[in-house]
Each structure stands twice: as C-alpha cells, then as structure tokens.
Design brief:
The chain has 193 residues and is mostly helical. 50% of the residues lie in helices and 11% in strands. The protein has 2 domains: 21-90, Helix Hairpins (Orthogonal Bundle), CATH 1.10.287.990; 99-186, 3-Layer(bab) Sandwich (minor pseudopilin epsh fold). Bound molecules: manganese (II) ion. Manganese (II) ion binds next to helix 1.
Length: 193
C-alpha cells in the first residue's frame, strides 16, 4: 500500500497564535509529505513488507531480513510518517479531554501539572532533533521518553499516546531558538488533557 497523509481535521491557521499557519503548512505539506514519499520509496522494494501494518514493522525492525540501510530508512521515514500523524491528531483548536488518560496520568505522575512539568523538562532538555513521548507499555502503564530523530516508542515495544515534535522545523519560524516558549504554548493546543 502507498502511504498518503492523513487529512487534518482543522485548517492550517486553526492553532494560531500558538502554532502559526505557515509552520503548519510547511510542516504538513513538505516535511510530513517527504517522510511519506521516502517511506513509500523503501517499501516499493519489499511488497510483502508493504502489506503489513507499519506499526508492526517498527516493532519488529531488528528482525527484518533487509539491509541495514533500508532498516534505517524504515525507522526514519516510517517513524516520521507515524509520528507526525499522531502529532496532528492530538492537537486541535478545542479541548477534547480524554478522561481515561487524565486519570492514568494522575495515577502515574501524581497530577496533570506534575506530568506537564516532567514532560516539559524532557522536551526542553532533549539534545538536538527529536520528540518527547508519552507511551504505554504492554501492560498499559504510562512512560515518558525523550527519543532522538524520528525514533518511535514502538521501537521499544511501547505504544505512543502523545508526541511532541521538538525538531526546529516544528517551531523555528515563529519561535526561533525559543524552544521552551513553543512547548509552553503547545500545551494550549494539545487537546487530550
Ligand atoms: Mn516534524
């Protein structure tokens, strides 16, 4: 199957003023599209793999019988494709609170504020390009990760729940080097909590 971008459920300017329309447009139409194109390019070589769920390919990446360069391409572009799809879907112009998630966050981190503090810390301190993640393990327990590049929590056997893109392309047009300011404002467009 060929991967195509998921439709956004809001317009490019819907997250203004926290995430500007130009950043949204370039991030979605250029960056995310490029991950999809390069993912499709590597899967073209492996029609059998292309039929499997992408999540399963990332979970079992080490065991795939393909050259290391193609594994890396799958990790980067498959990860990039899924990561951005999740990023768009957890944001929105209006809150759509996930009560189960909020309760699990309180159980795990003590309070939503404490979770936000710790998650912000992970995102601010992540060196270079990468993502801050909230993910569930096989027992449903929540974990926080800071992972480089487009590495998905799926590579570690966890299911991503919330992903915050801290690559400079996610914020540089509006925030330049002020990553903490982008993160502070991102909480306002994260719709789940
Ligand atoms: Mn990105």
């Amino acid at each position: 199957m060929k991967y195509t971008l998921p439709e956004l459920s809001y317009s490019f300017d819907a997250l203004e003023p926290y995430i500007d329309a130009k950043t949204m447009e370039i991030h979605y139409s250029k960056h995310h599209q490029t991950y999809a194109d390069k993912l499709n390019a590597v899967l073209e070589k492996y029609p059998d793999l292309a039929e499997k769920p992408l999540e399963d390919l990332l979970r079992g990446l080490d065991g795939l019988s393909i050259p290391d360069a193609d594994k890396l391409a799958l990790k980067n572009h498959g990860g990039g494709f899924l990561n951005h799809s999740l990023y768009w879907s957890v944001m929105g112009p209006e809150k759509e609170i996930d009560e189960r998630l909020v309760n699990d966050i309180k159980d795990t981190f003590g309070s939503v504020d404490e979770f936000k503090k710790q998650f912000t810390d992970v995102a601010v301190k992540l060196f270079g390009s990468g993502w801050a993640w909230l993910a569930r393990d096989e027992n449903g327990k929540l974990h926080m990760h800071g992972l480089p590049n487009q590495d998905s929590p799926l590579l570690h056997g966890h299911v991503p729940i919330i992903g915050l893109d801290v690559w400079e392309h996610a914020y540089y047009l509006k925030y330049q080097n002020k990553r903490p300011e982008y993160i502070e404002n991102w909480w306002k467009v994260l719709k789940l909590i």
